[in-house]
């Protein structure tokens, strides 16, 4: 039964539906894997095994009576710690919400419950989704299953690591500036950021409201397409969701590369590691041999993506996190002084260093006399970046580039230099600023056995094309990857 955990998502779905596997068998195998391996990976913040097994038992009973909720009934899924589940702690890996129990379900959770998925909360993350390595969690640092001396990426590091360590076949994360795609790349799995407005954000604890988007991780492509179909759609509880044609996973298919125009970047303009650069060029050569036309794009505006992103994101985080004041809910530090002391002491004790840094930067950029000089200019630059992507897709079918400039770095390697850490997101943040969809696909490993990811991007709400290209890319031998069976 141990081999169950190494099945792909699509194999698990097939076995559950043909009756050769029960949800209880599957869930028990994953719980055993977590028990033996999560002390090294640290993907989970807590786990109620009895509650999880009860869900699995209920699913099996539904199938036994011929009344499953859906073809997905009984499939385990991990949930990032900033997505609300009624009756569960939703702490955002922060001390300020350490004991906060959500009174309601996020829209994505409601949709998954209707299909019968078995929930495995809570997956570790950078505090309030602010980070690129999961080292900013208030509780623990998650590790990369390929090498536990290295980070899994962030902020959705726990969600990515759980799938890469074969503790789960699929999970949910959130992506504000690369927080799904970057850890997916560093952990050798699939990770999708949908078009902004495709998936409801209701019940996602906000970091930067104009950038955040919930999306899936999976150990194969089918998990990504199935989850996107389930999660997407207009939501009256979230006015930023868009009324567009619903995504249909059955429309995803392989494409013929011949004649397709692939947008690429000039590698000499970016500081890619030698292995990442070599793999990118190998993939481009392979696609060219299949008849694709490679079109070099002008990514000159990309150098502004990091400063623009961190001005807009921190301004929004300053506003969103103002609600955590020690009065309404969350951590409260009793004081005998003034009301301002209560605010100050509660927030000082509850927020970590990186969250405080971003609140301060955002508050400064929104302050009188500096708004136009910083935040206002950043918003104008964002419009230019969005326009640049629109221009790109007038001349190419899809953009293909590395997801991360390097493979996973070592724990502690960049924590003393925030700017160096921010640069880890240089290839992902512009996608969030433009609001377009992008997916990170496994692209083999480097000479040290560490995963490399390739990012594909298409125009707004063109996820069918995006996933069709990603599915076709996965057929290349260069992109094959095997997840680690032993966690060392």
UniProtKB/TrEMBL annotation:
Gene3D superfamilies: Amidase signature (AS) domain (3.90.1300.10)
Record text on subunit structure and interactions: Heterotrimer of A, B and C subunits.
Protein name (database record): Glutamyl-tRNA(Gln) amidotransferase subunit A
Active-site residues, Swiss-Prot/TrEMBL: 80 (charge relay system), 155 (charge relay system), 179 (acyl-ester intermediate)
Keyword Nucleotidyltransferase listed: no
Gene (UniProt): gatA
Any one GO MF annotation of this record: transferase activity
Coiled coil segments of this chain: none
Domain spans labelled Amidase: 25-467
Source taxonomy: Bacteria, Pseudomonadati, Spirochaetota, Spirochaetia, Leptospirales
Enzyme class at the top of the EC tree: ligase
Recorded GO CC terms: glutamyl-tRNA(Gln) amidotransferase complex
Pfam families recorded: Amidase
Enzyme Commission designation: 6.3.5.7
